[in-house]
Amino acid sequence: MPANILMLHYTGMQSGRAAIERLRDPVAKVSSHYVVEEDGTVLRLVPEERRAWHAGISHWRGRAALNDRSIGIEIVNPGHDWGYRPFPALQMAALCDLCLDILARHPVAPWDVVGHSDVAPDRKQDPGELFDWEGLAANGVGLWPAAEAEPVEAGPEALLAAIGYRSDLPLPVLLTAFQRRWRPEQVDGIADAGCLARLAAVAAMIPPAPPEAG
């Protein structure tokens, strides 16, 4: 199946070396196509034409089992359990170049550049609220709303579903995942006026998922 999703993760381990060793260990049963280290070094672990085991139980825009249709990039960062910190500029620049190369080879729509927390909001937090999604979008990777939209009559559940989030999880869980990605200045799982405006702005950028998505 052609890859049409690009998924970004953080490693969530105490060191990049430990993460790479785990990703290369067959016993661990986890893998990714690429790793981007904090100094900007890029390692390819799995060829793009082969499946890597990075997404787990995952859903996005009506599609499930996303390992079958995604390219996964692990970005070295200790994550929320080991001292979460900002992603260095060299790392982000290397990641941006890698993403642009991948997007030139695969039919990935801007709204299908996702974080692990987007596709598994009840399990994952990565790459998290310190990740510069806005900067990536400014360089042609993914989306970022240019301005807030006026809140619409649709409720937060409908807006989240329109963006691509699954609809069978508690609303605070989904809102928290949305905020980590799209409103990192306030990650509290609450749909206040600012959150609703950001939801509407993001939803307005994304077309309906095709009915044949599966």
From TrEMBL:
Q: Which Pfam families match?
A: Amidase_2
Give the top-level enzyme category.
hydrolase
Q: Which PANTHER family match?
A: N-ACETYLMURAMOYL-L-ALANINE AMIDASE AMID
Which organism is this protein's natural source? Belnapia arida
What are the UniProt keywords, alphabetically? Cell wall biogenesis/degradation, Hydrolase
Q: Does the keyword Hydrolase apply?
A: yes
| EC identifiers of the protein | 3.5.1.28
Catalytic activity annotated for this protein?
A: Hydrolyzes the link between N-acetylmuramoyl residues and L-amino acid residues in certain cell-wall glycopeptides
Name this polypeptide is given: N-acetylmuramoyl-L-alanine amidase
Q: Which residue numbers delimit the N-acetylmuramoyl-L-alanine amidase domain?
A: 1-128
Alphabetized InterPro entries for the sequence: Amidase/PGRP_sf, Amidase_domain, NAMLAA_amidase_2, PGBD-like_sf
